[in-house]
Amino acid sequence: MDLKTATALRRLRLVSGPEAISFLLLLVCSVLKRTTDFNAVPVMGMVHGVLFVLYVIFWADAWNRAKWPLKTAALYFVLSVLPTGGFFADRRLKREAENAVIASRARQEGVVNA
Q1: Residues 6+ apart with CB under 8 A from 68
Q2: What are the residue ranges spanned by the domains of the chain?
Q3: Is the pLDDT of residue 34 over 90?
Q4: How far is CA 2 from CA 38, 70, 74, 107, in A?
Q5: Which of 108, 64, 82 is closest to 90 using CA atoms?
Q6: Cα(30)–Cα(75) distance, rounded to whole angstroms?
Q7: Cβ-based neighbour number of residue 37 at 10 Å
Q8: Is-contact 66 73, C-beta < 8 A?
Q9: Contact between residue 20 and residue 86 where contact means Cβ atoms under 8 Å apart
C-alpha cells in the first residue's frame, strides 16, 4: 500500500469513532424523547446523518484504494450500522493503516521482503 491508501484508511478511521458515538447518542436521545419531554432527536439525527454519509464516502474511497476483497469491505460497512461497530472498525483500521505506512517506508528505503 502507498501513502494515499494509508491516508484514506486514516480518514475512514477518524470518522468511525465520532460516527459510533453519534449513533449511541441518537439512541439515548430517542429513549429520552419517549420517556421525557426532552427531544434532541432532530439535532442528533442530523449530526449522525452527516457523520454516516462521511463514513460511507470515506469507506468507498478506502475500499477503492486498499483494494479490499468484498468480504472486508462488507465487514467495514456492517460495522458502520451497528451501534458500537465504529469502535471495532477504528481498531482494525488503525492496524491496517500502520501496516500500510510501514510497507510504504520500507519500499522507499529499498528494503525488500526476503
Answers
A1: 62, 76
A2: 3-20+53-108
A3: yes
A4: 48, 20, 22, 9
A5: 82
A6: 27
A7: 6
A8: no
A9: yes
